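User: Fold this, then the next.

Assistant: Folding the first:
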Amino acid sequence: MSTRKSTVAVSAIAASLLLALGACAPDPEANPTTGTGGSAAPTGEVKAGCEDYAVYGDLSGKTVSVYTSIVEVEQADQEESYDQFEECTGATIEYEGSREFEAQLPIRIEAGNAPDIAYLPQPGLLKTLVTNYPGKVIPASEGTAANVDKFFSPSWKDYGTVDDTFYAAPLGANMKSFVWYNPSLFKDKGYAIPTTWDEMLTLTDKITADFSGTDTKAWCAGIESGDATGWPATDWVEDVMLRTAGPEVYDQWVSHDIPFNDPQVVAALDAVGDILKDPTRVNGGFGDVKTIATQAWNSAGTPVLPAAEGETPKCVLHRAANFYQTNWPTGTTVAEDGDVFAFYLPGKTADDKPVLGGGEFVAAFRDAPEVAAFQAFLASDTWANAKAKATEGGGWVSANSGLDVNNLATDFDKLAASVLGDKNSVIRFDASDLMPAEVGAGSFWREMVKFFAEDKSSQDVADAIEKTWP
């Protein structure tokens, strides 16, 4: 899912996506807790193809457990990206993906059964774990810190830092400000890609009018995600906050310099409701507005796909992040002339380009050379390019400056890179991932479910969330 957020300067991610750096082969005798992922020349014989892995040393017989919210279909690509590390170091990586990750990780830590490594989808969760379980999260290894300093902007390191101690290195980066659509339908109907928010609302009304009297709606949505149900709706609110209130107010909202029930936040909730709580505009393919609360997020866009001959798709637009690309059914062509493609969720004007981003952060819970080595590997350019090559279906990018964009699988991934690289883009990390976990991964999720399932008002939702702020 990888679903979740801070203040990021556009140059940080743009440069990191567009700059391709190669790693030199390091010293095979280097201590894996202090290796830099490719700064030293090799000394001694190294197995062919393992030059970039020699820094991690011989880890034969060692096992590293990984716990994460990244599940199928993305899990297979993750596991494949570790193959060379396992082959060259002798280590075994035991991967466990769970849809109940956010709820289960604290329970496992409390029970003394923490994983060696966890991929945290929220910086706010990192802060909560460090605060609530002193000493359980291990400060990042020297090699991990060196790789992050080399391959990531300082902002990304800040996200993994709590009280001036660096704990968690960035893994993947997400761009959430996309709207998926059916290119052939757009062509047949003469629909133009909107370049402003008002144009998008005009398009929404045009679609609604064109399909009046049918089951087809302009939008489809779903926010069910197991114990994390509600997070896709928070992404909607965050994207809209950036467009209606602006990035400076967004930052104040994240840091609680303004309360959660500030009128500007309520206005953003209203703007979301104007689209997603209007029964004439949603929920194509699924039912009424209430179905948004129970429809699984990873299949919510399915009605956008081309319909059977003589029929029309049940919905035309679906807002979802770049990683949604991996959730289309096998055989779906993601391209400008394919079954589905996406456009940037527009801002107020064509030059106004706010971008909602997210990512995961690699935290360690066991102080051991093999754990430190794997954490450092995940922060290296070697892993970023291995992951890009393993993700043959697309849907993944990274803020690692050593990522060669030519290794990205699809035109859509390169589209994400182009938006992130646009000098006019103003990027902000997913707000709920930066907020305290009891809000960002708690009341915000729960209240957005009530927003749809119970038709709870924007003001009541905002008031209820504000009351939970610690």
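Now the next one, as you asked:
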Amino acid sequence: MKNEKTVDSRYIQQHLANERTYLAWIRTALTIMGIGYLSAKLHFLSSLYPIDIGDKIAQIIGVVSIAIGLSTIGYATLSYIKKRTAINNQTFQSPSYGLMILSGAVFVLSILFLAYLLYV
């Protein structure tokens, strides 16, 4: 077997940077899901009263954070694949819509956390 250069080998540093970015997205997604799960779980463990607005907000925080986390993983995977192809074809353009959507989703989650803190 002969060591032949591949298209990927011409852009090694770009591909490695793409992988690091992908892994950062995955860590971000896991953190978002973990914080949402933890906050919802801690609320239910400390709740001494029947279901109230705080319970509903805690449930929403848990569900929204899991949804944002899963969406982030999907976006990161698709973005990684598109960037890999674009790097090899030398047609890479920096995306911005995905970042804006994720920022908006995290903003909504932050508003839910604020509502939770105000009502509990």
